[in-house]
Amino acid sequence: MTQSDLHVSQANLQSAKRLMTRRVLFRVATRTAILLGATALGMVTGSLLGVRVALNFMQHSLRSYAVDRLGEVDDYSAEALRVLAKMNASSLPRCSEAELGSFRRLLMNDTHYLKDIGRMSGGRLECSAMIDRSSLPEYEFQPAFDGSDNSKIYINVEPLRVGPWTAIVMRIQDSYVAFDPYPRKAGPPGRVFTITMRTAPAGRSPYLGGDRFPVTKDLLKENVDRRDANNLYSTQCSDHYPPCVTASMNIHTAILEQSRQVRVWVIIGGLSGLCLGLVYMLLIKQEKGIERQLRRAIRQNRLRVVYQPLVDLVSMKVVGAEALVRWTDEDGLVISPQVFIQIAEQRGFVNLITAWVVRQVIADFGPCFHRNKDFFINVNVAASDLSDTALLPMLEASLRAAGASPRNLVIEITEGATVRHRVAMEAVAQLRGRGYRVFIDDFGTGYSSLAYLKDLTVDGIKIDKAFTQTIGTDSVTVGILPQILAMGEVLKLTVVAEGIETQAQCAYYRARGLPLLAQGWLFGHAVTLEEFHDRWLVSEKPLINTCSVGETTVR
C-alpha cells in the first residue's frame, strides 16, 4: 500500500466514524425528543385531568358547605317563627316591664340564634328586650321583603347589630325577632356565602345577609352548581322557607387547596407519557427491524413456500394446491404472514414478495406442469398488486422461462381488494384476457356481492372457513352457505370450500352434487414441496373413501 493509499484509507475510516457518530447522535436525539415530548404531553394531560378532578372535588365540597349554611338558616328561621308565635300569644300589657321580663327569659332560656326580641309599631321599634327604650330611634324602617305568611323581613334596622353586621329582623304582627345571619362556626378558608330571597320583587336586590357578591338569576334556582372563568358557585334553597344560600370560591384558590392532588396527576401523566413513549419507540424499532429483516430475506431467498392440497370432491383426488409464503426471522422467530404481509403492503414492497413467490412456485412445479397440463397452483395477490403495471409482465416472463401455461396459475384476490372497484375490474379483465383464472378468496366475509361478481367476472370463489365451521351447528350463518353455493352454480363459478376439517363437513359439500373443490386439514396441512410430492403427486388414488353423503344433514 502506497502512502497515498494509506492516507485515503485513513480518510475513509475517519469519514465512516464521523458518519457513525452522527447516526448515533441523531438516534439519541430523536429518542430523547420522543421521550421528552411524550413525558411533557403526559404531564400536560395529567395536569388538565388533575385540575378537572380537583375542581369537581371542590365543587362537591362547596355544595356541602352551602348545605351546612342552609341548615343553619332553616334552624334560625324555624326558631324565629316559634318565638314570634309565643310573643304574639302574650297576654301581658304591651311593652310593660312584665312583658319585657318575659321576653328576656324567653330569649335567654329558649333560643340559640336570636339576639333580640321586642315590639314594633308600624315600622318603628317600640320596645326591646335588650336595648333601652331611650336608645331606640324614632323613625320607621322599611321592610326589604314581605313573606307569604304576613311576615316582614328587615335588613337595615341600624340599632340591632351583631358585631360589624346588621342583624336580620323578622316581624309578624307587632312582634319582631333579630338574629345573626352568620354561622356560629367558621367554615373552611377561601369560601364565602350569601343569603338571598327567592321571593324578592322584580328590580330589588335579593340580598338578605352574609357576604355580598353578585348573584345572577340563574344562581337563584333550586340546587344549582355553576362555574365561570374565575369562581365556583353552589346554590342550595330551603324546602320550607324562602331563603337560599349561595356559596362561592375562587377557582385559583380551589386549585391551590388541591395542589397535592394536582401534582399527583401531573406525576401520573408524566410517567404514563414516558411509558407510552418507550412503547412507541419499541414498536417503531421492532417494525423497522422487521422491515429490514424482511427485505433482506427477500433478497437472500430466505422466505419459504409451502403447499396445501386442493381436492376435487367428485373424484377425491388432488388437482392443485395453494401456495402459502412463510418466514422465520433472523432471531429464529416464526413471523405470521398476516404481520409481515401487512408491513410489506404498508411500506410499499409487497410486490417483491409476490414476484418471489411466483418465481418459486414455477421453479417448484415446472416439471409437474409439463406432465399434467390441468394441474394448477393458487397464488395470493395483494390489493396493491392489482394496480401494479409490473404484475402481468412478471407473470408472463416467469411462465415463459419455465415453459408453463397461464392455466397452471390461479390468481387469488381477497374481498378487500375489490373495494377499489374500477381498479379490480380492469386488473381482473387483463388477467383473464391473458388466460389466467381469478378466484376471490375468503368469499362472504367482506365486500363482495352478487353485483360485484357480475362486474368482476371472476372464475371462482373460495368460501371462507367460517361458513364451513357452522355446518352441523345452530349458527344463524349456516343458512348463508346454500345461497353461496347456489349463486356459484348459477354464475358457473368454480367453488372452493375452505377449512374442511371433519368428515361431516366434507359429506355436506359432496351432498350438494356440484363440481366443488375442497381445501382443509382433513385432506392435509400445508407442507414443503418434497412432502407434497411424496404424499399426493406420486399416487393418483383418491384421498378419502369414507366421506359419504349420509354423514350429515343438508340444510
Question: Could you describe the 3D structure shown?
Answer:
With 555 residues, the protein is α+β, with helices and mostly antiparallel strands. The protein is 45% helix and 21% strand. The protein has an eight-stranded mixed barrel, surrounded by four helices. Strands 2-1-8-7-4-3 form a six-stranded antiparallel sheet, with helices on one face. Helix 1 packs antiparallel against helix 4 and helix 4 crosses helix 5. It is elongated, with a radius of gyration of 45 Å. It starts with a helix and ends in an 18-residue tail after the last helix. The C terminus is likely disordered.
List keywords for this structure.
alpha+beta; 555 residues; eight-stranded mixed beta barrel; single chain; 21% strand
Summary?
This protein has 555 residues and is of the alpha+beta class.
End-to-end distance, in Å? 85 Å
Helix count, DSSP H or I runs of 4 or more residues? 14
What is the SS-derived class?
alpha+beta
The Rg value, from CA coordinates, equals: 45 Å
Our estimate of the beta-strand percent is: 15-25%
Indicate the percent of residues in helices.
40-55%
The largest pleated sheet is described as: 8 strands, mixed, barrel
Point out poorly predicted stretches. Answer: 550-555
- What global shape is seen? elongated
Q: Which assembly state applies to the chains in this document?
A: single chain
| Extended strand count | 22
Average pLDDT score: 83
Task: Tell me the strand order in the biggest sheet.
Answer: 14-15-17-18-19-20-21-22
